[in-house]
Description:
This protein is an alpha+beta fold. The protein has helices at 2-6, 37-42, 64-71, 75-79, 85-90, 110-115, 119-126, 136-139, 158-170; strands spanning 11-14, 47-50, 56-59, 95-96, 99-100, 218-220, 223-225, 229-234, 239-243, 258-261.
Amino acid sequence: MFRWYEEASICYVYLSDAIHPHDQSFSHCRWFTRGWTLQELIAPNHVHFFDRTWTFLGSRISLSSTLSDITGIDENLMTRGHEDRKSCASEINSMSSYRCQYCAAIARDLRILLNTLSVAQRMKWASRRATTRLEDTAYCLMGLFDVNMPLLYGEGEKAFYRLQAEIIKESNDHSILAFRSLQSDYTGYSPMLASHPSFFQDDCRKEWMPNATSEIMSTSGDVLSIDLYICSLNPSRRRHIGIPDCMMSNDYLSRPALLWKLRTRA
């Protein structure tokens, strides 16, 4: 589906619960809360929004600031590099060949733009969205991460674990581990991989987290292989902190920490 939208010239979004054509604060609209509509917003070259009376509200370019505030998606991804929002948005076919005839911006490949954003940052876009079927919380994100896997309805939250395993096969971005578990017990320990996109909704995930450049991660069954810096907290209780190779903001020393308890092999 993502590729289908990506190859579309334009996508028309009908907001049935947008009432006031001159009120651009339509964050209450249900369209912004659904999992599958995320790709409808990001993938097409152009997106035009209409209210319940089919009154034109604006395009993704002209509304980029508002849409970024609502969704948390980087504004540069909304505009695809266009600088003159009013002129560029006034013409559907503003991209003649590869250069915009209004602002002279060179068309930026969507995949290149997405790959400049960390896994955690992209996961955050889906963290407050819902789907009717639990498995679709994973399936609706496959295109966003450019991965493929079989659709197995009935597998429940296993779908999201499989999605992350596929992402790890294609990416070495440690930020996939930088989530705040909603299932941690009183000890603070959490699973290695998130069970739902909502685990990435922490405000700190808004910050830039560059892709990792260390050794390749891999998964095999329930085992995750990864090279990390380990800091011992309490050796007698085998409590340690793992430091993933990703940064908060642009500060190399500002990193998330993973609380682990090492187990001895039987």
